[in-house]
Hints:
alpha/beta, Rossmann fold, two-stranded antiparallel sheet, 5 helices, 10 strands, globular
Amino acid sequence: MHKQWHGRPARESALEQENTGEAPVPLWSRAAVAMDTDRPIKLAVLLSGSGTTLQNLLDHISARTLNADIRLVIGSRPGLKGIERASAAKVMNFVVDRSAFDDCPQFSKEVFSLCDDAGVDLICLAGWLCMLDLPSKWSGKIMNIHPALLPSFGGKGMFGKRVHQAVLDHGCKVSGCTVHFVDSTYDTGPIILQRTCTVLEDDTAETLAQRVFEEEKIAYPQAIELFRDNRLRVEGRRVRTLDPKS
């Protein structure tokens, strides 16, 4: 029988977001770490909600359209649907409850210790809403997907329906999603790729979210494959996509 692991004793609490107030740390002076492109990339997925992005990755792996192995799923509080999805897929999972830690560094240490123990190559944030204190060894090896075209409509508190409602309130004609590397602040890391969709005249936050998610389902696996194939090079604020090796 599959077991659910817990990083720390869980306490029921509202989901928390935090910014440490520290200056952003530039992490982008080198190419992505070289990997053996024949083997599946080993992933950790961090989530704070229902796990639809996790399910998308699992579906792509099952369909053999993503050469990856999800070794670990971490949830930021108890009772998450995303952790139920991980258990159903027989993926090792932990709850590291943010409310059980006094500060971001302690919380982050627990999260990254689990990732280290699992031996993963890349950490994928999938609706993860907690600030992390990034160890230098993980620089350039953490991705996030955001349901808007960054740098617009990002930052602390901008997630889920709030993002799509803000897009509509500003009268935008297009929206979409952004996959980016993670740095020390919300939604500010170098952009890997973006996909767009049209904002319709009769859109609601819910209908727009559905169409943006269809683009997310394509974008995240594509970005992971580019990383696995050693085709991403970060140069300052820009991420260059290298040509495939002949």
